[in-house]
Amino acid sequence: MRKLTYLVATTLDGFIAAPDGGFGDFLFEGDHMAALIEQQPDTVPTQMREPLGITGPNKSFDTVLMGRSTYQVPGGLPSPYAHLRQYVVSSTLSDTPADVEVVSGDVLAKVRELKAEDGLDIWLCGGGKLAAALLPEIDRLVLKVHPVVLGRGIPLFDGEFPAARFALVETQAFSTGVVFSTFTKS
C-alpha cells in the first residue's frame, strides 16, 4: 500500500508560510537545497527540474496533493508538478489544466482510494487545513525546519484534529541551520 507523506518546510514556531501565504523568509540557498534535490527530486517544480539537472523517473512520489491556497500561491504555475499526478482539494476551484484534478468531495475517501492503488507514494504538499483534515491518513512527516521565527502565519496543522503520535526516524542538520526531520506514525 502506498504511503501519504507530508513533506513541507516549516519555521521553528510551526508555520509553513507567512500570513499572506508567502515563503520569502525561508532559505532557498545552501547545502540543504542540494540535499533536497538529491533526496527528494520529485518535490521540485517541473519547470525547475531540467535547469537543476533533475532527469529520469520519479524516485519517491508519483502523486501530489495540495490545498487550493498552496496550488494558487502568488506567482504559481497552472501545472506546477506536471511530472506527478496532481490533485487540488477545493470546493471553489474549477478552472485548472487537464492534468490537475480538483477534489471537491470527501478528501479522506480520495486519499484512501489513492493509497490503495499501485505506484509510488503520495506527497502532501500543503497546506495546514488540509494536513489537519488528513492527519489520520498521514504515514510519514518530513519537516524541513528553517531557523526562522515568524510569530504568525499558516500553521503546519490548522484545525481541530485528534492527537497523533509520530516516532523520529532520521534527522539531518545543515550548515544553513535548516534541519530535516523524518517521522513515521507510531
From TrEMBL:
Q: Where is the Bacterial bifunctional deaminase-reductase C-terminal domain?
A: 3-180
Q: What GO MF annotations does this protein's record show?
A: 5-amino-6-(5-phosphoribosylamino)uracil reductase activity
GO biological process terms on file:
riboflavin biosynthetic process
Q: Name one Pfam family in it.
A: RibD_C
Which residues fall in a coiled-coil region? none
Q: Which InterPro entries match?
A: DHFR-like_dom_sf, RibDG_C, Riboflavin_Biosynth_HTPR
Would you tell me the protein name for this molecule?
Dihydrofolate reductase
Q: Which organism is it from?
A: Saccharothrix espanaensis (strain ATCC 51144 / DSM 44229 / JCM 9112 / NBRC 15066 / NRRL 15764)
